[in-house]
Amino acid sequence: MFKCSECYKKPIQQCNSCNGKLLCKVCSYNHLEEHQKLDKFVNFGPPIIKIPLDKISSLKVSLKEFICNIRKQKTDILRAASKTAYRIEELVRDSYEQLDKMINKYTELLKMNEFEGQDIEIIEELLSKNIRFKSPKFSNIKGVLTKNFKVNKVQDRKIDKDIIKLEYNLLIEGHTSDITSIAIMNKSQFFISGSLDKTLRIWSLPDKRQECILEGHSDCVKCIAITSDDNYAVSGSSDKTIIVWNLHKKKQELILEGHKDTISSVGIGKNNEIIVSGSDDKTIMIWNFSNRKCEAVLKGHTSFVKSIAISNDNKFIISGSWDKTIIIWNLYKKKQKTKLEAHLGHIDCVAITYDNQYIVSGSWDLTLRVWNLKKKCLETVLEGHSDRVIDIAVSKNCKILVTGSLDKTLRVWDLDMKIAVAVFENQDSFRCLAISNNNQFIIAGSEKCALGVWNIAERKIEFSFVNHTNYINSVEVVNNNQCASVSDNEMIIWDLEERKPIQYFPLYSVLAINRDGSFCITKLINENKIFQVWNIKEKQQEVLFQGHTDSISSIVFTNKNNFIVTGSNDKTIRLWSISNKNQEAIFQGHTNEVLILLITSNDQHIISGSRDKTIRVWDLFKKTQEAVLEGHSSSVYSIAISNNNEFIVSGSYNETVRVWNLLFKRQETVFIGHKGAVWSVAITSDNLFAVSSSRDKTVRVWNLEKKRIEILFNGHTDSVYDVMISNDNKYIISRADDKSVRIWNLIEKKQEFMLKSQFGNAYKADITNDGNFVVIGFTNKILTVFRLIDGKIELNINNIDNNRFNSFLSRNVNKIYLANGLGIATLNIIKRTIKIKMLFDMGFGIFFENCLFLEDRILPSIIYSHN
Q1: What is the C-alpha separation between 679 and 718, in angstroms, rounded?
Q2: Are 584 and 563 in contact (CB under 8 A)?
Q3: Start-end of the WD repeats (predicted)?
């Protein structure tokens, strides 16, 4: 404690002549008298606190944390303000709607010359009175914005990625958008990556971790270069600037401005005296590194300059452009020397071999071209890529060429033999690459934020850098000095002492759960062609199915739960056997993407709708196409099957609803009336009515017997995406883009209830089998259970840390399945309990047993319950 050295009162000064002795006011006078008696010089000064080095370090961490929390409060204030602004906007919108109704009402009267008896009161009121409004006024807005309080650090606190960075020097978030550029330092211990997320990041190859993040660009980072002494990095961006970074200090050194468009490529001369940049403004600029000025602007290209390279002898600049040409520039004279033409498409990348013998270029024409730099002519054409070539790297021994392409492959070429010697395949397109200085490894970045290191000799991936590539939803420090962090894509466990990941759990998206809860279907978040089937009772993966060549668009269980049917953007429908664990059949016939699949209740037929404008009927037993139903003039987005399996109703982008006889395979009725695409259709259980929803903001009820419109429901203010009908045919539930779910009374032909979210659209709505509850999922990751009997909210479910989850109905009317990326839980509506049903990864299950916070933080929980 800070005390006087004599009496332990609070000191006001110290004696610098006595090694900083602390003194209060009274003791200061006594101490002065002692100096005077001894005739010694006295030097008083303000008290200075000496803190041990370990406490200074902790103090700095605390100060940074204070600053971080203050900055977060600023962001929270803006968020709160936006909510208030939204409420005001909502009030204004509602008032405008009400006033517009009044205007329409009086405008209609204005057009009339003859009136009915019921109008007499209105007429008399108009003749004798005028309308006046009170001045518009909003209630006073008061805010608690800066009030704060201090809490002991031993108390629970909210941990996030910034706190982990400050306290443990650990970066758990990687790039969050496409990686566009990679440059390796000359000592090969580190490399730098740039991304569309506006950042540069420094990575340690030996430690396999991220070391630093460089922030400063206001738009996408497009290119990077590093000086030969590893002292500086240079980056170009879509913000039209070049930033020079001091790599020792890990900070911005200077900004070079002059280009008028995106800077696509940068290079540094071998003597580190010049920087060369190429831009979408069609120019190349030469910058003096020392005086930080532009020395020359090279003009000659007629389109974007996408790539530049500098020869090792500093004599030439090579530039590649979307004008399909390569230009060789004399660096000393700063003028064009030669133009090379042969490519049939845009040129995205150029490189020069280290011996200055060859230029290599990659293009949209799918080829690589090798040019003789001395002879200024084409040497050879390398073919093999099936999509545009994005990036090129040449090994330092000039023997190997590596290319990355949008065809999702890396190709290794022998420059002497002029052939491909290895092909590395990936799930995503490669955007950038570099070769290590020992010519043994390739470092490549992809469009999905992944960074991988590939072994050239062994023809395999060596390792991938583990970091979050999506927004991190939750972070928590747990047992044994470990940290768990979760994003929408994955959960990662980190060792805080060694600053590295120790466990990685991919997260799954649950696509379907059958009604008896015995099986569920999942896919990995970033994988749309492969799906897994899990045995929920046995708590294990049953089988993994793959075969589709494009994204799966629709997936359903058969009613007996022995098969799964999938429709895909690859135009096929596939039948999969759960028991035999194989693909049973491929149904081919659609000429465009399959958009929707349904199965008749007797499991006899598959009904599919497609972007090819047709509906097709497939025999599930014979595994053949039974009929093609044609009539729609645009994509078929929705289908419903009658309970007796005798007819189907379809909705299309062409604004019509059509009724088809399933027995005779023919069109029965066309309902016309919608003024926009029909997104959803449903049929009442008594097969008397069809209901449709549309982009025209309406819900329409059609009489199937009388073949006419029965009811037009207006109220939604944006496109209505889904409709469903309660089992007793009393209610219609509609979900729209206006952030509302509306319940319509089909018998009384009126709107019964409306549930509107302030902060997100409803992405899903279901009715429980007993018709008591509507279950609604909102994009703000809140699930609401809504009571139909009185229009009250029964429960609100959310994850404390905002992780994604979904809901599925079960045969038990009081039970709902809640699924997030880690597993499945069950919600009992009556008992108001949530229990874990299964976890997708056994390793996570073991970790879960020792980390109680996960149940509260990651699994859904009830945040509101109606008494």
Answers
A1: 13
A2: yes
A3: 172-205, 214-255, 256-297, 298-339, 340-374, 382-416, 545-586, 587-620, 629-662, 671-712, 713-746
C-alpha to C-alpha distance for 657 and 651, rounded to whole angstroms? 5
Two structure tokens written together for 152: 């002991």
Instruction: Bin 238: left if φ > 0, else alpha if -120 < ψ < 50, else beta.
Output: alpha
Range in 128-137, 288-297, 749-758 with the lowest mean pLDDT: 128-137
Instruction: Compute the average pLDDT of residues 129-133.
Output: 80
Q: How far is CA 264 from CA 254, 370, 393, in A?
A: 19, 22, 16
- 158-202 pLDDT, tens per residue? 677 888 888 788 888 899 899 999 999 988 789 999 999 999 999
Measured in whole angstroms, how far is the alpha carbon of residue 731 from the centre of its chain? 36
Task: Report the distance separating Cα 59 and Cα 575, nearest Å.
Answer: 63
Closest CA to 323 of 288, 292, 347, 299: 347
pLDDT higher at 76 or 763: 763
Determine phi and psi for 20, rounding to 5 degrees: 75, 35
Helix axes 53-111, 161-168, angle to 10 degrees: 170
* pLDDT band per the 50, 70, 90 thresholds, residue 155: very low
Place of tokens 């109704």: 101
Q: Is residue 239 predicted with pLDDT exceeding 90? A: yes
Model confidence pLDDT, tens digit, residues 512-537: 998 788 999 999 887 899 999 999 99
pLDDT tens across 197-231, in order? 999 999 999 989 999 999 999 999 999 999 999 99
For residues 569 and 595, what is the distance between their CA atoms, to the nearest angstrom?
8
> Residue 848 pLDDT more than 70?
no
Do the Cβ atoms of 241 and 256 come closer than 8 Å?
yes
Three-point CA angle 402, 406, 412, nearest 5°:
15
Please list the residues that pair with 452 across neighbouring strands: 444, 464
Determine the 3-state secondary structure of 810 from DSSP.
Answer: coil
Q: Domain map of the chain by residue range?
A: 1-49, 171-299, 767-866
Q: Taking the model in full, what pTM does it have?
A: 0.71
d(Cα 556, Cα 132) in Å, to the nearest integer? Answer: 59
Question: Alpha carbon 227 to chain centroid distance?
Answer: 34
Q: What are phi and psi of 524, to 5 degrees?
A: -70, 150
pLDDT digit string (tens) for 593-606? 999 999 999 999 99
Residue 565, phi then psi, degrees to nearest 5: -115, 135
- Cα separation values, 384 from 295, 350, 409, 445, 617, Å: 40, 17, 10, 20, 41
CA–CA distance, 315 with 415 (Å, rounded to integer)? 23
Q: β-strand 731-736 against 740-745: which pairing, if any?
A: antiparallel
Q: What is the pLDDT of residue 249?
A: 92
Question: Architecture of domain 767-866 in CATH?
Answer: Beta Barrel (2.40)
pLDDT of amino acid 55: 63
- Cα–Cα dist 185/199, whole Å: 18
Q: CB of 826 within 8 A of CB of 837?
A: yes
- Give Cβ neighbours of residue 342 (< 8 Å, ≥ 6 apart): 369, 378
Model confidence over 22-77: pLDDT tens digits?
A: 888 888 888 888 888 888 888 888 888 766 665 666 676 677 667 767 766 776 67
Please state, in angstroms and rounded to a whole number, the distance separating the CA atoms of residues 57 and 312: 46
Percent of the chain past pLDDT 70, that is, above it, reads 90
In terms of Cβ atoms closer than 10 Å to its own Cβ (0-12, 13-18, 19+), residue 169 is exposed
What pLDDT, on a 0 to 100 scale, did the predictor assign at position 30? 87
Distances (CA, A) of 300 to 262, 621, 762: 17, 67, 54
Q: What is the distance between the alpha carbons of residues 485 and 488, in angstroms, rounded to a whole number? A: 10
Q: Identify the CATH homologous superfamily for domain 171-299.
A: YVTN repeat-like/Quinoprotein amine dehydrogenase (2.130.10.10)
Q: Which two structure tokens, joined as six digits, stand for 72? A: 């977060």
SS3 at position 776: strand
DSSP 254-309: EEEE--SS-EEEEEE-TTSSEEEEEETTSEEEEEETTTTEEEEEEE--SS-EEEEE
